[in-house]
Specification:
The chain has 34 helices and 35 strands. Strands 1, 21, 22, 23, 24 and 25 form a 6-stranded antiparallel beta sheet that branches. A 5-stranded antiparallel beta sheet has the order 34-33-32-31-35, with no helix packed on it. Strands 2-28-27-26 form a 4-stranded antiparallel beta sheet, with no helix packed on it.
Length: 1010
């Protein structure tokens, strides 16, 4: 709670500061203001910021906890580093992304192309004299497009350079690759900040890749292997086969010592990948998000930078705040600085050169904020909580705007290396307005870059151990190292050499190690050194699930792959993460839930129960309920509720029904506490019984009770909405009941849910569910009431209709007939329909939703339009606005806030403003339509609906006056279909006067000179 309040206060402070310093706050212009000095030009507002040379760079940093930075390499030895890896001899391979940010070929987001052709490089750096500074720099491979990642394998290096993933190897010893093997193709390059990136070895000897956000089709030798889109992937370096993985966020990801994976996106700086893709990809999956945001301070948390806001960001942010189309931006995006906006490469520190307390902590760069943020991870059920480690400052921050911490690497010496791309600007060109971009050089710094080593207080640099010449037995001993680089490099080399026979004794000895990570590797070695799949012997499986460390037990269940029923008397388990693994890999071949697994099905953790409900455990429970092995009780009832949300549950009920309808009826008798579940089972059972039985015995009581709940004055709105959801599964009489609920005496929430139920009877062609037929007759009772329905319910009707193509066609038909006025379609839906994937729908929508002037307004507009050819007078316009318009519009502290705030329209063109004034009904916003309420006592109220609750609605009219009417008192609610703003301003205002008003409105969007 404290953290949330602190974040809110930080948002408020940043907003106030930005408003005060960048001219966002607007006042009503005073006479003569327009005669003052002109505002500064863009060039004056956006001075360039100079770079800091490498020898002076360390002076710009502030590092906490006594840590210090050491410069390992800088230009010209290295430039544009975005990823790096160390081979078994401590040599560093660096991906240099010189082509950023322009693609060389035309793309959707960069239609002109023109970027540096094949400018990417993989560089080999070496410290030949052991002083901690790189002194040898060789171009290992060049002529690459956007290299984003490097990863060592078999004496060579995988290089991900979209559109291709390569493998390069130097066989001559000169440091330059002479083998160039194309592994995969098809990585999309549309968005430079959404390309695939960051290859990392997993404990299962697969290389995991952040898939990015560009939709891609991975191919090999022209054959399609996998489609990427909101997912990551892994590949086997030996067989070059691919597998989808949960992910699809942005730049960077990292494993901890136990194989837990963490990802990040621009403004969501640390997330945990909880659920494997094999579960989330199932049609049966129903559960919490597979990727969980775990930052205690929130996703776009506050950051404490030391650098100034870049001038161009200030200008762009000011424009966004003033532009109505950006109104939906979160508060953190409405200020130039102060929050995570460009988080990159969340990395878990796993070395042995720092104090023990730092092991397992997360480090995240923010390239826009010129800082490195630190998080402390704490177990939280199946997942983690990540809390800020450094209060009111960052672990590392620079005053240099060019400092761009793009990535981190756990190094052979046990420290953490920091890659600094060192660029003047980091941003996608598409996201910068063209006129601002003219004053920037987005390629500035492509010849610069730095790599730093983070050294702990009193830390002594350790020599780099060269593992390449070690024997298999020597490598096996390194599996117990506290330094993850040494441990996992040895693990990789053993697997690459395929040498399992000579290390059995050493691997067995790992079970005596006090290091749990060593015992984890012992399990993985036993399962994977044969390189033919995961096979864990029963005695190792038993040792694993009896291990005192929960992560060892979790991995044992994972590697056991459902064979734990072969272990006699497995120990009871309470750790949520271990139970999650048990749920994901349950035993098979049983007629009921195996002993020791009931606790998983009945677990309170949403992730544990969700995986269990999507595994075969819930199936075994349902089967056990019917064959007498299990009894229905409160726990199993809860499991059934969760399982009932999965599509496969229907097939289970079908199987039961085929054997005995009585079993279904018996289950229904025991499930009286939850009508939703009873109805779900009853719906499936219907097809197995005769009509009389179907209509009365099973479904009838459930639906009758739902009607009583809706009618009861004692029912809460939530209870009514749940009951309406049940009635949506009923017959024609229940449809009529729902239609009658759409009336002003009901809350908009109840009406909206009833609308969803009614339209739910409109099913697509080919769906013969029950007695429903596809036609538009079900809509008639709703559309006949259109003028008496409030804007919220109207919007619900439209939203439900555009969910499918047949329903959308019905909506367009009704718009064409005039029964649904085109002006009542909100802007977001207009945009969706006119850009619809169906060309037929898009074409019809463009024609039907094209705003046309009303006949009576054409002549008026033609008369007033020529006046806009001459500039208006702001001072006169201000006076006229306050006299004629402030009755409904507010600007500054004058006027009344009835209609939209004027600041929301200042970016409209003068011609658009003229139309809005003289033809207000052409594009009237649905929420500013005028309504009339007639009460049961005969009173009449008029205005726009300003607020709706379950008990009342509020009408607001001119001068801000408003009336609150109880829903119980409403006899009739009717919409005029017209904007609250009246027509006829031409009777009181000449063309020149309206031109002056428009000039005043436009002046409100101009930054006042200081």
């Amino acid at each position: 709670m404290f953290a949330a309040r602190q974040a809110q206060r930080c948002v408020l402070v940043c907003v106030v500061v930005s408003l005060a310093t960048t001219g966002f706050a607007q006042e009503i212009a005073k006479p003569g203001d327009e005669e003052k000095a002109k505002p500064p030009s863009l060039a004056e507002e956006m001075p360039r910021i100079a770079a800091t040379e490498p020898q002076d760079a360390l002076k710009t940093f502030e590092v906490q906890q006594g840590f210090r930075l050491e410069l390992v390499a800088s230009e010209p030895m290295v430039s544009d580093p975005v990823d790096a890896c160390f081979d078994e001899n401590g040599r560093m391979f660096v991906a240099e992304m010189h082509g950023y940010p322009y693609s060389q070929e035309p793309t959707r987001l960069n239609p002109k192309g023109g970027g540096k052709p094949d400018a990417g490089i993989v560089r080999l750096l070496e410290d030949t004299d052991g002083d901690g500074r790189m002194d040898r720099s060789v171009v290992f491979a060049d002529k690459l497009r956007w290299p984003t990642s490097v990863c060592c394998y078999d004496g060579g290096v995988f290089v991900l350079a979209p559109p291709t993933l390569w493998w390069f190897k130097d066989t001559t010893g000169d440091g330059k690759a002479d083998i160039r093997h194309r592994v995969f193709d098809g990585f999309n390059r549309d968005n430079v900040q959404a390309v695939a990136n960051n290859m990392k070895w997993g404990l299962d000897h697969r290389i995991y890749v952040a898939g990015g956000r560009n939709p891609s089709v991975i191919t090999k030798d022209g054959k399609e292997l996998l489609k990427l889109g909101n997912i990551d992937f892994s590949f086997d370096p030996l067989t070059e086969t691919v597998r989808p993985e949960t992910g699809g966020v942005q730049f960077g990801h990292s494993f901890d010592d136990w194989g837990n994976r963490f990802v990040c996106s621009n403004s969501n700086h640390i997330q945990h990948v909880v659920v494997p893709y094999e579960y989330t990809s199932r049609e049966t999956w129903s559960g919490p998000p597979a990727i969980k945001s775990i930052a205690v301070e929130g996703a776009a948390a506050p950051v404490f930078r030391r650098s100034q806001a870049e001038p161009w960001r200030i200008v762009r942010t000011r424009r966004r705040v003033a532009d109505p189309k950006f109104a939906g931006l979160p508060p953190t995006e409405k200020v130039a600085i102060g929050f995570f906006t460009s988080a990159t490469s969340v990395t878990i520190y796993r070395g042995d050169a720092w104090p023990e307390e730092y092991r397992g902590q997360a480090f995240i760069g923010d390239v826009g904020g010129n800082l490195v943020h630190r998080k402390i991870l704490e177990p939280d059920g199946v997942s983690f909580k990540a809390r800020r480690a450094d209060q009111n400052h960052e672990f590392l921050a620079s005053t240099d705007n060019w400092f761009r911490p793009t990535n981190f690497v756990n190094a052979p010496d046990g420290t953490l290396y920091l890659l600094d791309m060192y660029r003047e600007t980091i941003e996608h060109p598409y996201s910068i307005p063209e006129d601002i971009k003219e004053h920037l050089d987005l390629e500035s710094g492509s010849d610069r870059g730095r790599i730093y080593r983070l050294v702990a207080k009193n830390g002594v640099r350790k020599p780099v151990e060269k593992l390449g010449g070690h024997s298999a037995k020597e490598l096996a001993k390194r599996l117990a190292s506290k330094n993850a680089w040494a441990r996992e490099t040895a693990y990789r080399l053993l697997w690459e050499r395929h040498d399992k026979d000579n290390v059995a004794e050493e691997i067995h000895a790992l079970w005596e190690s006090k290091q749990a990570v060593a015992r984890v590797l012992a399990l993985h070695c036993a399962a994977t050194l044969n390189r033919r799949g995961l096979v864990l012997h029963d005695y190792l499986l038993k040792a694993g699930i009896e291990d005192p460390h929960p992560e060892v037990r979790r991995i044992a269940y994972q590697l056991g792959q459902g064979r734990t029923n072969q272990i006699k008397d497995p120990p009871p388990e309470t750790n949520s993460r271990v139970l999650f693994a048990k749920a994901a890999y349950p035993p098979t071949g049983s007629s009921g839930v195996p002993l020791g697994f009931e606790q998983i099905l009945f677990h309170e953790d949403a992730y544990v129960s969700a995986v269990a409900a999507n595994s075969n455990l819930a199936f075994l429970l349902v089967r056990g309920l019917t064959n007498g092995r299990h009894r229905l009780n409160a726990d199993s009832h809860r499991v059934l509720l969760r399982a009932a949300k999965t599509p496969w549950f229907d097939s289970v009920i079908n199987e039961i029904c085929r054997r005995s309808v009585r079993d279904v009826q018996g289950a229904l008798d025991h499930l009286e506490l939850n009508n939703e579940l009873r109805l779900r089972i009853a719906r499936v059972a219907r097809q197995h019984v005769d009509a009389d039985y179907r209509g009365g015995l099973i479904v009838g009581p459930v639906l009758d009770k739902a009607i009583d709940t809706v009618k009861s004055a004692n029912s809460s709105e939530k209870e009514q909405i749940l009951a309406i959801g049940l009635l949506a599964h009923g017959g024609s009489e229940h449809r009529k009941f729902l239609q009658d609920l759409v009336e002003p005496g009901q809350s908009s929430a109840v009406q909206s849910e009833a609308v969803r139920g009614v339209i739910g009877f409109l099913v697509e062609e080919g769906d013969q569910s029950w007695d429903r037929k596809w036609n538009s007759l079900t809509l008639d009772p709703l559309l006949d009431k259109w003028s008496t329905i409030g804007p919220t319910v109207r919007k619900t009707i439209v939203e439900e209709l555009v969910r499918s193509i047949p329903r959308t066609k019905v909506l367009l038909k009704e718009i064409k007939s005039g029964r649904v006025p085109a002006r009542d379609i909100d802007p977001a839906t207009r945009k969706f329909l006119t850009g619809h994937a169906s060309s037929e729908i898009a074409s019809a929508a463009k024609e039907l939703l094209k705003p046309e002037p009303t006949a009576s307004r054409k002549e008026v507009l033609a008369k007033y339009q020529p006046a806009l050819d001459v500039a208006g007078e702001v001072a006169k316009g201000r006076e006229l606005f306050l006299k004629k318009c402030s009755i409904c519009h507010k600007v500054g502290d004058q006027g009344h806030l009835v209609a939209p705030e004027i600041v929301s329209v200042v970016n409209k063109s003068p011609n658009d403003l003229l139309i809005a004034i003289l033809d207000p009904n052409r594009e009237a916003q649905p929420n500013f339509t005028q309504y009339t309420v007639i009460t049961k006592a005969g009173k009449v109220f008029t205005g726009m609906i300003a607020e709706e609750t379950g008990a009342s609605l509020t009408l607001r009219r001119a001068e801000g006056k408003q009336d609150v009417i109880r829903r119980a008192d409403i006899a009739e609610l009717v919409s005029s279909g017209k904007s609250l703003m009246p027509e006829g301003f031409e009777k009181d205002l000449s063309p020149e006067q309206i031109r002056d008003i428009i000039a005043f409105v436009k002046s409100l969007g101009v930054k006042k000179p200081e």
